């Protein structure tokens, strides 16, 4: 089993951007990490985001993916919470 790490870029929108105070993060994760772990890490750091966990959509490299999709080194991840109209 490999214990190497991957580096991804996370684009933040709406509630995630407000909570983190920035529009982009660069994060490191172990190999074989699912994209949902990105959300889990942000919620661990910003518990107010927990209400968005079950309704957030995930994108990797501009394609919507399932939460259990495995991240690859260099991926660009987007977390998209529901967007209110207006």
TrEMBL record:
Highest taxon of source: Bacteria
Q: Name one Pfam family in it.
A: ThiS
Alphabetical keyword list: Nucleotide-binding
Coiled coil segments of this chain:
none
Family matches, as InterPro entries: Beta-grasp_dom_sf, MOCS2A, Mopterin_synth/thiamin_S_b, ThiS/MoaD-like
**What family does this chain come from, according to its entry?**
Belongs to the MoaD family.
**What's this protein's name?**
Molybdopterin synthase sulfur carrier subunit
